[in-house]
Amino acid sequence: MTITPEFLKDVQRSGWIIDYVVDGLAVGQCPRAGCGVRVNLRPGAAIPQACPTSDTLADVLMVDWGALLAFLVDRREALALSQLDLDDCIGLSPDHIAKMESLARLPSVPTMFHWVSSLGYEVVLRPAGLPPKTLAVIARTRAKAAMKRNRYRQKRQDRLTGARSG
């Protein structure tokens, strides 16, 4: 049978993340962190429910632009979408994705959000430890601020002391 948008929506409604689609087969991945279950799903066959997602969803950590770009290219290819198909999904002019994937153009922030969501992901920011450089800058600026406060207090104290003695 043919893969249809309705079938793919049913796969997602059953809780599966569509990992890839090829030759009349959709491979669904459990969205729960650590589960790792994958199922082969075919149109016309029963679609089992994925694990409940009340637990933490599996995250994909991106450490730099290169890792994010490689992930987006791999995801597009796993879904068997051409660059032109993805341009159409996002509403971009032809060859826009090709230029971004070849680093000839950097995406705007809104385009990046559309690109990520069109491939079935979302951008999530969560607290993480501050890097050493940021910690050093914070410590340095706080030390400077403390020195300024101490100088101000000392000048104020000197003025008050001088006003009392005069």
Helices and strands in order, then pairings?
Layout: H1 5-13, E1 17-22, E2 25-29, E3 38-41, H2 65-78, H3 83-90, H4 96-101, H5 109-118, H6 132-165
Antiparallel strand pairs: 1-2, 2-3
Which features characterize this protein?
single chain, 166 residues, mainly alpha, 434 Repressor (Amino-terminal Domain), 3 domains, three-stranded antiparallel β-sheet, 6 helices, 3 strands, 49% helix, 9% strand, elongated
Describe this structure in words.
- This protein has 166 residues and is mostly helical.
- It has three domains: 1-58, no CATH class; 65-118, Orthogonal Bundle (434 Repressor (Amino-terminal Domain)), CATH 1.10.260; 130-166.
- Helices cover 49% and strands 9% of the residues.
- The protein has six helices and three strands, in the order αβββααααα.
- It has helices spanning 5-13, 65-78, 83-90, 96-101, 109-118, 132-165, and strands at residues 17-22, 25-29, 38-41.
- It has a three-stranded antiparallel β-sheet.
- It is elongated, with a radius of gyration of 27 Å.
- The N and C termini lie far apart (99 Å).
- The model has no long low-confidence stretch (mean pLDDT 87).
